[in-house]
Amino acid sequence: MATQQTIDNERLLPVRRGPARAPRIPEKFADREVKPAPWHSSDFVASEKDPVTNFLGWFSIGLGLAEVFAPHAVARLIGIDDEEHKTLLRAYGVRELAAGVGILTRPKPTYWMWNRVIGDAIDLRSLSNAMNTRGSDRSRLKMAALAVAGVTALDIVSSMRLTSEASPAAGEDPGSYKTADTDSDNVLAAVVTVNKPIEEVYNFWKDPRNYAQFMDQIESVHPTTGGLSRWKVKAPAGLAVEFNAKVVNDIPNELIRWTSVDSENVDSTGTVRFKAAPGNRGTVVTLEIEYKPKGGRLGAKVAKMFAAIPKTQLKNDLRRFKQIMEIGEVMKSDSTAVPGMHPAQPPSRKQMEARS
Amino acid sequence: MRANTWQAPKHLAVENVPDPKILNSNDAIVKITSTAICGSDLHLYNGFMPTMEKGDILGHEFMGEVVEVGKTVKNVKVGDRVVVPFPIACGNCWNCQHDMWSLCENSNPNAWMQEKMMGHHCSGVFGYSHLLGGFAGGQAEYARVPFADVGPLRIPEGLTDEQVLFLSDIFPTGYMGAEMCDIAPGDTIAVWGCGPVGQFAIASAKLLGAERVIAIDRFPYRLKIARERAGADVTINYEETNVLEALKELTGGVGPDGCVDAVGLESHAPGIEGWYDKAKQSMRWENDRPIALRHAIMSCRNGRTVSVIGVYSGFIDKFPIGPLMNRSLTIKSGQCHVHRYMKPLLQHIMDGKIDPSFVITHRMSLDDAPVGYDIFNKKEDECLKVVLSAA
């Protein structure tokens, strides 16, 4: 028994004998080459670069070397005066070399590819200038321009592809929150927290006659028969638009939704939602307005420009609503009491009369 | 009525303007007896605050007599003598009910402008740009005061205007600056800026039990007032000596326990740093010159608090976030929640613990307001605080 215990202990407790040694590499891996750390992402990505981009990189290097070291030959080839242009060609060569190195070494050479496109444009411009210069060989120049145009096309295709490729880790995440107007041109939303109980807030919204008090765009809303209401909305140039709306959904202390029923240009649906703010901090009121223009995408754009109200205005509407709930009226300052630009001075009697 | 109006940077004019009217049902009209020029008015004067318009009436430190009240006003009546707090606060929103009056959610009709620049908005303020509501200010014969039931503080008889006028802003602001340092027995508090707010921060740090207060400025006359009237134990002239080193020497190497920035966006420094920020600000590459703030952060004792009561308007450059983060510092800041402090500080005045009138160096009539701004801005004639009489 006693002997058995001694052996167990020895196996369980790591007992260090002598100085620590470097871990030995097992014989069978000894001849393996180990890549030095840290590995760079380009080690993986560079090899996956598409062949066209790679070709354009090497093309840049080749052309650049020729322009820098043999500007005379290049000039003769494309049909321009060699003495006059050698410095310019050398400069263009340096540009090509930089682009080539960039394209070949960067894992995702978007910047350097667009650099090539700009270079192409400069080259084409220079060639067209040369056409009108004495001592140029027109037919050679045309050939050169044609060649550059071909490469330009390749450059543009490759650049646009690189630009459109998102970085591999980025992308859609359906689990994440987006604002109401992220994916739609036709939705406007705003939110405000009111320091009042949810019933009081809901009851205020329940009566559409209240809307004109805080919604800038609305002149009046009157309930009519059959669950309908008549809305009079301000339009540009002092005009007013009238339409009927009906409540399509009404869940007490939760939601009211109304929709326009006979509007000519735009169908709009408004939804106001009520939710108790966490920690007994009042009521969160969310107002969402959705426009369904009659007339497709173009109609949507037009509606957005003329019919839809900007988001800031919708937020201000809710702010005024909050003021009415919390302080009983819309807050005014000396400068905002009358419309238009007005310094922070008490408004004159005339201005006050013009307002009412 | 007569009112001091902003015309253009460094150009003011006392003009005849319409008399104020009741615009909301809880308004009061106050006939102003005394009003003061605030250091933060100089930021408007010098053109560093956006959204000023020609004709804006300036002034947010004022007091006077109630001459008219709106139909829902209950707490004040015609004839009451009141001091008006500079933030306009409704008293009903969540922030007001949680004692954060300068963050009132309902009092700024131009909240949307401020939201665009600051993310969220603050309360309205009298005579302080359209960003803060476009309210006419109190450097005038009369002012309209919204939320008359909430803001104005009735003043008992026997106290002069000069004793209580600064309850409107600078005394509570200085007090809040000191209070935010969470002063414990034995603490040393350093205050950057010995303007009127700095003087009250110094005096308040003493009231709150600071062991020692160190005041920093560059004008000997202001440092002298800090020592002799506000109660600073030590003063440092930053043009003569290295502040960071001086503060280390004075605190056994650890730095002050609380650092109050009572300077704000127009701070100065000798040498390269001063020129750097001046150049950037003049080209609008930064809104504010944050020199005092940088120094306060660099000087503060590990783990303690930097309290910012000097006014800043927007974005700054070279903010020492590394020192702040690595040394566990806390920044506390805010436009003063004046309503929170008015009554207790009035009590301090009535108890004779402090007489705020010690900062006044110049007394003028409202018609001389432009002159007052000029000498206050240039620190001429040893100017520290200008009080205008509108009566």
Write structural notes for this entry.
The complex is a heterodimer of chains A (356) and B (391). Chain A contains 12 helices and 7 strands. Chain A is α+β, with helices and mostly antiparallel strands. In chain A, strands 1-7-6-5-4-3-2 form a 7-stranded antiparallel β-sheet. In chain B, 29% of the residues lie in helices and 21% in strands. In chain B, strands 3, 5, 6, 9, 10, 17 and 18 form a 7-stranded mixed β-sheet that branches. The model of chain B has no long low-confidence stretch (mean pLDDT 96). At the A-B interface, helix 11 of A face strand 4 and helix 3 of B.
Give a quick precis of the structure.
Chain A is built from 12 helices and 7 strands.
Largest β sheet strand count, sense and barrel closure of chain B: 7 strands, mixed
Query: Count the helices of chain A. How many?
Result: 12
Q: Point out poorly predicted stretches of chain A.
A: 1-6, 42-47
Assign an overall shape of chain A.
elongated
Helical residues, percent of chain A: 40-55%
Q: Roughly how much helix do the residues of chain B carry, as a percent range?
A: 25-40%
Average predicted local confidence, pLDDT of chain B: 96
* Shape category of chain B: globular
Radius of gyration of chain A: 37 Å
Average of pLDDT of chain A: 82
List keywords for this structure.
heterodimer, A: 356 residues, alpha+beta, 7 strands, elongated, B: 391 residues, alpha/beta, 7-stranded mixed sheet, 6-stranded parallel sheet
Could you outline the blueprint of secondary structure elements for this entry?
The complex is a heterodimer of chains A (356) and B (391).
Chain A (H helix, E strand, L loop, with lengths): L1 H11 L28 H5 L5 H19 L1 H8 L3 H24 L4 H22 L6 H27 L22 E8 L3 H9 L4 H4 L3 E6 L4 E8 L3 E13 L3 E6 L5 E11 L6 E11 L2 H11 L4 H17 L21 H7 L1
Antiparallel strand pairs in A: 1-7, 2-3, 3-4, 4-5, 5-6, 6-7
Helix pairs in contact in A: 3-4, 3-5, 4-5, 5-6, 6-7
Chain B lengths: L1 E7 L2 E6 L11 E10 L1 H7 L10 E2 L3 E9 L11 E4 L2 E2 L5 H4 L13 H8 L5 E2 L16 E4 L7 E2 L6 H4 L5 H10 L8 E5 L3 H12 L4 E6 L2 H11 L3 E4 L5 H8 L7 E4 L10 H11 L8 H9 L5 E4 L12 H6 L3 E4 L4 H13 L11 E4 L3 H10 L7 E4 L2
Parallel strand pairs in B: 11-12, 11-14, 12-13, 14-15, 15-16, 17-18
Antiparallel strand pairs in B: 1-2, 1-4, 3-5, 3-9, 3-18, 5-6, 6-10, 7-8
Helix pairs in contact in B: 5-6, 5-12, 6-7
